[in-house]
Design goal:
Keywords: Copper, Metal-binding, Oxidoreductase, Signal. 9% of the residues lie in helices and 35% in strands. It has three domains: 125 residues, Cupredoxins -  blue copper proteins (Immunoglobulin-like), CATH 2.60.40; 165 residues, Immunoglobulin-like (Sandwich), CATH 2.60.40.420; 175 residues, Immunoglobulin-like (Sandwich), CATH 2.60.40.420. The protein contains seven helices and 32 strands. Bound molecules: 2-acetamido-2-deoxy-beta-D-glucopyranose (8 copies) and copper (II) ion. The site of copper (II) ion (CU) has 5 residues, from loops.
Length: 545
């Protein structure tokens, strides 16, 4: 497999000062029976016949190699959420754009230079498959952390279902309004465990110590909020970007987002405390938003009384607030790019003329192309610069090399949505309400905070920027993964001629396409040039919805 490595690899090894190492993992992707909340045993997707999958630890400048063997009866893929994959676009793991998926009974080796540090995660990007358990934290350690702390605690939070993701997807895409809107409620898992037994989900603390809690929301659906009774927290990182400390009472995380906080333990072990990790149920447009409470225990001393605890939460001292990421200040002060290209996007949920509910940017409901966009770029010559060849429904936007892009997303929907851009971080320039009332506008600072997944509450907008300094095919999608399945995604085709000049796709990629009968050249439909006859543009929103 080593022969498949791109020519970027030796380049990094030559420049590295410390002994960068290879972290080589050999993974069978397998079905496993599991009962994480003690309420329901079901088939989940794990690694090497175990579930949950392991936490992956790497150091800056390591090479992370994952040799994945698909033992499922469906395709799969691996995407490292937040890694830029600079020079290795074909290892970004997005079926339909950067690969065809790993065919059943087949293998694929992902090989990535670790050029970022902080809290990331790895998940299947095949449909909404990660909701079935194929997700895990990836922690990338710098030679020296910016902040001092005694313990590093990973808290992976997740909305868990007793049903498989294909089943939920089918429900949400039903033509029957009644089926579509039948509420389905998730349960909270903390590090793949849930249920009412507080011993299963406890966080242990010792008096006087400083803890870094790495909170990850790896849900395929709703927003989570986290807080500890009578403890404040200092935010120090979001989405792999170290920030100046900001004191908060609670943290909100949408699917895909990560936040590290420092919590200083109490001086005494006399009491234990309750933490909350509640789920917001805002995925179905036809179902009212609710909060599903979840409580766990911060244990200082086994069996110690719970401080200030009443079962109905009446004594809760947590002050819930929206985590205002735009106020955060990154440690590495980088000024934002300017604006060469402006990409305005409206988010709507509507009933379409196929009688299904779809979500869309600018009413163009997304569907992945047949031929992965990267293979289209590499096989259409000068026409790789024409958006049409990537397929209307992929919503391709072509970017010039080093172009500065401003994306303005107006959420005209009743739900909040977390948008994730691959290959980049967004600089957060402004937030506001879609009535454009200047009183509600919050502007980012001179060195705006950057993150890879941004939440937009209902009837609000956000303005973000990035520089097109990473040639490749980068999807931007709602990370309530079922919303991507319902059409809320688009594609940046970044510097196509640079991709052509610098990319040699590993042979294993085409081999997997062949195994699944997917063409490996031509436009999105597998035809030549601009021959896009019968490329579907619809369905279209019905008037009045
Ligand atoms: C990582 O690699 C970069 C060059 O790619 C180098 O400048 C840096 O010093 C390296 N850092 C470590 C910790 O190896
Ligand atoms: C995968 O391999 C197994 C064992 O060789 C075989 O039984 C199964 O049918 C294969 N599945 C597919 C989808 O090819
Ligand atoms: C949790 O652990 C404590 C202390 O070990 C024990 O007293 C208690 O019975 C346990 N609770 C459950 C539900 O097992
Ligand atoms: C995770 O994100 C989803 C979707 O944004 C949200 O509904 C859910 O409540 C979040 N969970 C946590 C624990 O933040
Ligand atoms: C809860 O904790 C606060 C702060 O420590 C304290 O002022 C209050 O009296 C406590 N309430 C109860 C019922 O113990
Ligand atoms: C999208 O469709 C909705 C109706 O579903 C309409 O109100 C809105 O103006 C349309 N937006 C765009 C950008 O076409
Ligand atoms: C990708 O690498 C190039 C060349 O080193 C660099 O200029 C660019 O900033 C990188 N982009 C990202 C998103 O890391
Ligand atoms: C691609 O390579 C060709 C041949 O080396 C060169 O003429 C052209 O300028 C390059 N284009 C880009 C966008 O780098
Ligand atoms: Cu969404």
């Amino acid at each position: 497999m080593k022969a498949l490595v791109s020519f970027f690899v030796p380049f990094v090894f030559l420049l590295g000062h410390t002994a960068a190492k290879r972290v080589a993992l050999d993974w069978d992707i397998t079905y496993v029976q599991a009962n994480p909340d003690g309420l329901n045993e079901r088939r989940v997707i794990g690694v090497n016949n175990k579930w949950p999958p392991p936490v992956v630890h790497v150091d800056l400048n390591d090479t992370l190699v994952i040799n994945a063997h698909n033992k499922l009866d469906q395709p799969t893929s691996l995407h490292i959420h937040g890694f830029f994959q600079n020079g290795t676009n074909y290892y970004d793991g997005v079926p339909g754009h950067t690969e065809c998926g790993i065919a059943p009974n087949s293998s694929f080796t992902y090989e990535t230079e670790v050029s970022q540090t902080g809290t990331f995660w790895l998940h299947s990007h095949y449909m909404a498959q990660y909701v079935d358990g194929m997700r895990m934290p990836v922690i990338s350690h710098p030679p020296k952390e910016h902040y001092d702390y005694d313990e590093d605690v990973v808290l992976m939070l997740e909305a868990w279902y007793h049903r498989e993701s294909v089943d939920i997807r089918e429900q949400l895409l039903s033509t029957s309004e009644e089926i579509r809107n039948a509420p389905f409620l998730p349960r909270m898992l903390v590090n793949s465990k849930g249920g009412s037994d507080l011993n299963r989900t406890k966080i242990s603390m010792a008096p006087g110590k400083r803890y870094r809690l790495r909170l990850l929301n790896v849900s395929g659906t709703g927003m989570v909020r986290f807080g500890i009774e009578q403890h404040t927290m200092q935010i120090i990182e979001i989405d792999g970007v170290d920030t100046e400390m900001k004191e908060v009472n609670s943290v909100q995380l949408s699917a895909g987002q990560r936040t590290s906080v420092i919590v200083t333990a109490k001086d005494s072990a006399e009491f234990n405390y309750i933490y909350h990790a509640d789920i917001f149920t805002d995925i179905q447009s036809g179902v009212a938003r609710a909060v599903l409470p979840f409580e766990g225990i911060v244990e200082y001393s086994r069996g110690a009384p719970l401080r200030n605890y009443t079962k109905d939460g009446a004594e809760s001292t947590v002050d819930w607030e929206f985590t205002q990421d735009i106020d955060l200040v990154p440690i590495d002060k980088i000024p934002p790019p300017g604006v060469h290209k402006w990409v305005p996007l409206e988010v709507h949920t509507s009933i379409y003329d196929d009688r299904r509910e779809h979500l869309a940017f600018n009413n163009r409901t997304y569907e992945a192309p047949l031929v992965p966009s990267l293979l289209t770029t590499l096989s259409t010559g000068y026409q790789a610069y024409y958006p049409d060849v990537y397929g209307f429904k992929a919503y391709p936007v072509i970017l010039d090399p080093m172009e500065d892009v401003e994306v303005a997303i107006f959420n005209k929907d009743v739900n909040s949505h977390p948008f994730h851009l691959h290959g980049h971080n967004f600089f957060i320039m402004a937030r506001g309400t879609i009535d454009m009332n200047p009183k509600n506008r919050i502007a980012g600072g001179a060195y705006p905070v950057r993150r890879d997944t941004i939440t937009i509450p209902p009837l609000e907008y956000v303005i973000v920027r990035f520089r097109a300094d990473n040639p490749g095919i980068w999807i931007m999608h709602c990370h309530m993964q079922f919303h991507q399945e319902q059409g809320l995604a688009m594609t940046f085709i970044e510097a196509p001629y640079r991709i052509i000049n610098s990319t040699v796709v590993p042979e294993q990629l085409r081999r997997n396409c062949n195994l699944m009968g997917i063409p490996t050249s031509g436009n999105a439909m597998g035809k030549t040039g601009l021959d896009m006859a019968h490329d579907p543009h619809g369905p279209f929103p019905l008037a009045g919805f």
